[in-house]
Amino acid sequence: MQSWFMNGRYMLTRDGHYLVASSYRALLQNGGKLECHDLIWGKLLQPKHRFILWLVAQKKLLTKDRMLGMGIVCDSANCVLCDKDELEDHTHLFVQCEWARAVWRDIEQWMGEQIPQQDTMGTLKYIKRRHWCKMKREVIAAIHGSLIYFTWQARNWKIFRGISVHTDRVIQQIQSVLRERIGMFIGSKEAGKCIGFLEKLCY
Ligand SMILES: [Zn+2]
Q1: Do 23 and 104 lie in a common domain?
Q2: How remote is the CA of residue 155 from the centroid of ligand 1, in Å?
Q3: If you average pLDDT over every residue of the chain, what do you get?
Q4: Residues 165 and 197 in one domain
Q5: What separation in Å is there between the alpha carbon of 29 and the centre of ligand 1?
Q6: Do 12 and 18 contact (CB within 8 A), yes or no?
Q7: Is 82 found in the same domain as 27?
């Protein structure tokens, strides 16, 4: 930030005025635009799902590996969703954990599409490269975002409330959320381009 400071003033704007918003944007990666940001902030995602997906895409959730790195003491650093003595980090929790994989297998069957297992940013890039219409890409990104959100919620419920969330419940929640969101756009011209896919998800 030293280079922004000239003649006793922060010179971020052209006219030399300092704006909190402009320094915030400058601090964010790529001027605030993360790769695949259009999928992360897509209209098919619930706002709270977008936010968690945005954090996970950057591996910024406070997972136990990060807590340890910050010197925060926790009872156990293991994943609480499986009993495999695996360190809880982003890759384990959202990609490798058998709990999350079980959800994803059923969701793939429901979607009729196979998505290679990889970190969230890799998954989003994969979705973006597909020759699907825009609506289908947004729907599949929203499904992935819901999985991320409910996985994080299940992890928190186990740690803070002692409640084990069954994978079947999460699958139903993802389907219910997506059906509701798709219902808001089903009559649009955009939705018409992949109506067969959308109807398969909704009925
Ligand atoms: Zn696990």
Answers
A1: no
A2: 9
A3: 89
A4: yes
A5: 30
A6: yes
A7: no
Domain hosting residue 58, numbered range: 36-202
Residue 5 gets the label, from left (phi > 0), alpha (psi -120 to 50) or beta, of beta
Coil, strand or helix at 82: coil
State whether 69 and 91 are in the same domain. yes
- The Å distance, Cα 82 to ligand 1 centre, comes to 4
Tell me the sheet residues that pair with 10: 5
pLDDT at 1: 47
How far does Cα 94 stand from its chain's mean position?
10
pTM: 0.84
Q: Crossing angle for the helix pair 47-57 and 134-161, nearest 10 degrees?
A: 90
185 DSSP 8-state letter: T
Q: For residue 98, how far is its CA from the centre of ligand 1 (angstroms)?
A: 6
Interval 110-168: pLDDT, tens? 999 999 989 999 999 999 999 999 999 999 999 999 999 999 999 999 999 999 999 99
Same domain, 90 and 3: no
Could you tell me how many residues make up the chain? Answer: 203
Same domain, 25 and 44: no
Q: What is the whole-number distance in angstroms between the Cα of residue 41 and the centre of ligand 1?
A: 27
Residue 131, token pair as written in the block: 């020759």
CA dist 21 and 19 (Å) reads 5
